[in-house]
Amino acid sequence: MPxxxxxxxxxxxxxxxxxxxxxxxxxxxxxxxxxxxxLIMNLMPLKxxxxxxxxxxxxxxxxxxxxxxxxxxxxxxxxxxxxxLEYFYKSFNDVKQNxxxxxxxxxxxxxxxxxxxxDYWNEVKDVMEWSKTNVTSVLFICWAAQAGLYHFYRVNKxxxxxxxxxxxxxxxxNKKSQIVRGFDDTFYAPHSRYTAIKADDINKxxxxxxxxxxNEAGIYIVTSKNLKHVFVTGHSEYGVNTLKNEYERDxxxxxxxxxxxxxxxxxxxxxxxxxxxxxxxxLLFQNWLNYYVYQITPFELx
Length: 302
Hints:
Elements: E1 3-5, H1 11-17, E2 22-24, H2 25-28, E3 36-41, H3 47-58, E4 65-70, H4 82-88, E5 89-90, H5 92-95, E6 100-105, H6 121-134, E7 135-141, H7 143-153, E8 158-172, E9 186-196, H8 199-203, E10 208-214, E11 218-224, E12 229-232, H9 242-252, H10 278-294
Parallel strand pairs: 1-2, 1-4, 3-4, 3-6, 4-5, 6-7, 7-12
Antiparallel strand pairs: 8-9, 8-10, 10-11, 11-12
Helix pairs in contact: 1-3
């Protein structure tokens, strides 16, 4: 089944070139199908890239999905055209009267700041509180995972000595968890962050369970036992060149950045990076949609 996207969203043409099936809203409303309603709070600077990355994973499903996009109303985005935001995005105030099957909150490049110092923290906090009653399940990615753990469970992030940057091997702690159904015993996923969550802090909280972690990258997936929250500290949604682009960006800024681990062939930035995380990325998103959203959410959202 296709993902229903806003009319004329730039991601449509990119996904079409990749032979990924999408359908515009005007055509979807003619079909007699109850689509899953997924709200995406996009906090990433390059919003168009993030939209495409997420839609690429959401569309690989037998379920029909309708997305809506929101961004913080009190934050000026410098890396996405204003016209794009005005046409395709809403504010939280525009949608807070609605109910949704799922909510995705993305990462954000604000890890060095305390949560309360982020200029849109209050709005993110309002969305998380609202999700208790208006959303069936929430998928938190990278910074949002740390923000959700902090807001709901008072787990604080910890500064790292250097950026956790690269594509790392992970293991599964609980193979019976539905979020990792179909996963291999060892799988890879990208990380790009300066902070981390300690396993000891999670293990103290009876409502949470560490599902997957990495010897190098630490905690990867944490879920709440009521299936309401899925916290993913990495970026399984990343495209093939995302880490490469981040690496080159930081070099141009004069930031001391190491070559992303396990990413370039022979650790050579001149060579085209390879992808070995996409199959598990697809499984992660499809498992969330199926077991944490579709199997639980009511047919009548109201």
